[in-house]
Each structure stands twice: as C-alpha cells, then as structure tokens.
Write a structure and sequence with these properties.
This protein is mainly β and about 230 residues long. About 5% of the residues lie in helices and about 45% in strands. It has 2 helices and 15 strands. The strands form 2 sheets. Strands 1, 2, 3, 4, 5, 6, 7, 8, 9, 10, 12 and 15 form a 12-stranded antiparallel β-sheet that branches. It has a 3-stranded antiparallel β-sheet with strand order 11-14-13, with no helix packed on it. The longest helix has 4 residues.
Length: about 230
C-alpha cells in the first residue's frame, strides 16, 4: 500500500519555506519565528502549531480588506511542519534579502511575521485599472509565498527606457521601486485580456521585476474565506 505512494512523501526540510510540488507550500515552523498566512489556507500540519485569526498586527489594515482589495490573515505559531495551499494555485516562494516586493493581496499566501509590511497606495495608477489603488508591500530579511493561476513568468524590466505592459488581472507582484502608471487603449480592446470594453494596462519602468500569471480572470482569485 505505501510503496506506490512513496513518491508523494514530503522531502527532508532544507529551508524555512519550500514547495512541495507546484501547488503546495511547506513551512518549517519554529517557536519565535511566527508566520502570517491567508485564512483558510492550512491543508495539513505536523507537530504543535496554533492559529490566531485577525491578530492585533493585522487589524490596523482591516479597513482596506473591507473594500475587497485584501485578504484576511491568520498568525501561525509553534513547532512543526505546516502545509498551505490556495484552491490548487501554483505556489511561488521568494526569499527577500533585505529588499521588498509589492503584492496583489489576492495572490499573497504567507510571509514571515517579522517582515515589515502594510497596505499602500499604488502611485500613478488610476482607479480604472482592475488592480485597484492598493497593494500589500513586504520588505526585510525573510520569506514570502505567493500564488499564481498557472506557472507565472518573471519579467526583468532591466532599467531601460522601454516600459513593460501588463494586463491588471494577470499581475501578481512587482519590485516596489518600479514606476507604475495606468494606460488606456481603445484600439487594442479586442487583443488584450477578455476584450470587453476598453483595454487597460499597467506600465512598469525602472530597475526591477514583474511577476505575471497566465490568467486574466480574477473571479476565482478574489474569493474571501470566512
């Protein structure tokens, strides 16, 4: 019975956060190294791990979640192995080395609780873009896990004069030092995204990366767990 399933067993822990397959996150939990994770994302755990929904550190920005531009978080503490997932989405693990990332809150799965974070206004972006005016910015030394509807691509903007254009509903995250602006295009409305009405894009320029998922349909991404 066990032999045919051996290939699905967890591998030895090598890092604080790592993928178990493409659609699951494995977190090595230790006392004093707490985690903030999307509410409802826990699928399994080993050891002694406790959960606190809507901890005090999270309540300060709860007002922004009411608008649908964020997702509730829970605080995870204890020792053991924690497994997280989000409706079968691909999981992308990032180790921040003193830098930062700006994340669409619907794509945020988990991050180290000691990292600096908060909801911020996306400068230069008008309300017409599907991304909204707010994003979650995370910075410091630690781990972050994102989700993507399909295998994402990472575009290096390269710091040149050319801009990188992204469909707002396909955008996952970007380097916070990039310049962002919205662009409206009537002629391209049948070529970009779902092709209904005007075509809106987000334009990025400067030195940094943009993470893009192979999906423009945000319906599945904005479901909020209770």
């Amino acid at each position: 019975m066990n032999q045919p399933l051996a290939g699905y067993a967890p591998a030895p822990v090598t890092a604080r956060m790592e993928n178990h397959g493409s659609h699951m996150l494995k977190v090595a939990m230790q006392t004093g190294n707490d985690l903030l994770a999307r509410v409802g994302s826990m699928v399994a755990y080993e050891g002694f791990i406790q959960y606190e929904p809507n901890p005090p550190a999270v309540r300060q920005i709860a007002r922004d979640w009411i608008t649908g531009e964020g997702a509730p978080l829970m605080k995870c503490t204890g020792d053991g192995l924690l497994y997280l997932a989000d409706y079968g989405a691909n999981v992308v693990v990032i180790n921040l080395n003193g830098d930062g990332i700006s994340v669409n809150a619907t794509n945020l799965l988990a991050f180290d609780a000691h990292l600096s974070w908060g909801v911020e206004r996306v400068k230069g972006l008008a309300k017409f873009a599907g991304q909204g005016l707010w994003n979650t910015r995370i910075s410091g030394q630690g781990w972050v896990a994102l989700t993507s509807r399909g295998k994402p691509i990472v575009v290096d903007c390269g710091g040149g004069e050319d801009e990188t254009y992204v469909d707002p509903d396909a955008l996952v995250a970007w380097s916070p030092n990039l310049k962002v602006k919205g662009k409206r295009s009537f002629k391209a409305q049948s070529l970009i995204g779902r092709g209904s009405g005007e075509a809106y894009q987000m334009a990025f320029s400067g030195q940094g990366i943009v993470v893009v998922q192979p999906s423009e349909d945000s319906t599945d991404r904005i479901r909020i767990r209770g």
